[in-house]
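4.2 Preliminary Data

To establish feasibility before requesting continued support, the project team ran the inverse folding procedure on a target of 323 residues. The structure was first converted into the token representation described in Section 3, and no sequence information of any kind was made available to the design step. The complete token record follows.
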């Protein structure tokens, strides 16, 4: 418990001073040395998972209540995977179990965790600060829960993260600019929340991104005109049901050559549809309805031979295009 207490205090301190670079660096070095005095092992992992079980108030299938027992190895528990080399917990998947409870700070002690999937349950409350210690994470999926509070600044503190999925929750506030620090990120899914403010421009500089799903929030601002210059592998851009405005990006649009879903409806975009959209040969779904777009639908869209659906209802657009 001493190491847990130290980690909790440390993360609170780093949150307070993270904007002060020199002090933050000294503090981080000091805390790293302190953590080394309290090594973790499989017993620590077991204690962390038992703490999670204790914070679950409803387990209708009795999966954790019956299977997560100290009488058996933690590596044999349902939903738990361990690494063959270090014999530490590397993956936790308790998705779709209809569990109700809160996420305890103890999970931050699973220092070898690579994949965490707690989606499609009824977890509530805020994200624990102690998650900042999960530096090996590649997957964080907490979608379809009842989590709330502002997205913390440390949500961008996972250098190995490939997939961040927090859809269908009640997160509020801004999208932290720290997300742009995760240079390996392939998917960011924050749809169906209560987020506001501009989309951090740094997100559109993460060249590894394939999916940007921010649908159904209260986001505002404009899209970078050269967005596709930095996102050559982007396949899904889902931004419908927000408050985005300005003109649709046209510069370098052809470089989004992998794009097959472009969903921008129910926003405040104005101007005309850029003819460069016709260069997107893999585009299948294009949603531009209920915006302030006007003018004729460019005939170049007909070059997108894979197109299956074009929705412009509710916009002042004229002309037809047959696919």
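Position-by-position output of the design step:
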């Amino acid at each position: 418990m001493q190491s847990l207490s130290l980690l909790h205090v440390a993360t609170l301190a780093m949150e307070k001073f993270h904007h002060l670079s020199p002090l933050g660096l000294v503090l981080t070095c000091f805390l790293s040395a302190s953590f080394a005095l309290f090594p973790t092992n499989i017993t620590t992992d077991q204690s962390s998972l038992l703490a999670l079980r204790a914070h679950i108030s409803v387990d209708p299938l009795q999966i954790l209540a019956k299977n997560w027992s100290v009488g058996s190895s933690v590596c044999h528990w349902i939903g738990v995977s361990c690494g063959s080399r270090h014999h530490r917990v590397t993956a936790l998947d308790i998705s779709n179990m209809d569990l109700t409870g809160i996420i305890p700070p103890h999970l931050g002690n699973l220092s070898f965790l690579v994949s965490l999937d707690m989606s499609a349950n009824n977890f509530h409350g805020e994200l624990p600060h102690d998650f900042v210690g999960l530096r090996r994470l590649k997957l964080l999926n907490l979608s379809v829960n009842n989590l709330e509070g502002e997205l913390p600044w440390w949500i961008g503190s996972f250098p190995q993260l490939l997939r961040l999925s927090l859809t269908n929750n009640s997160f509020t506030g801004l999208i932290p600019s720290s997300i742009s620090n995760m240079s390996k990120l392939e998917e960011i899914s924050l749809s169906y929340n209560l987020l506001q403010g501009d989309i951090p421009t740094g997100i559109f500089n993460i060249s590894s991104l394939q999916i940007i799903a921010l649908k159904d929030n209260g986001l505002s601002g404009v899209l970078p005109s050269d967005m596709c210059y930095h996102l050559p592998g982007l396949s899904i851009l889902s931004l419908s049901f927000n408050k985005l405005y300005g003109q649709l990006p046209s510069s370098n649009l052809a470089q989004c050559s992998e794009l097959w879903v472009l969903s921008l409806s129910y926003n405040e975009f104005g101007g005309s549809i850029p003819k460069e959209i016709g260069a997107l040969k893999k585009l299948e779904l294009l949603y531009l309805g209920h915006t302030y777009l006007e003018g004729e639908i460019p005939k170049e869209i007909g070059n997108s031979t894979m197109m299956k659906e074009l929705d412009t209802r509710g916009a002042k657009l004229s002309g037809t295009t047959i696919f």
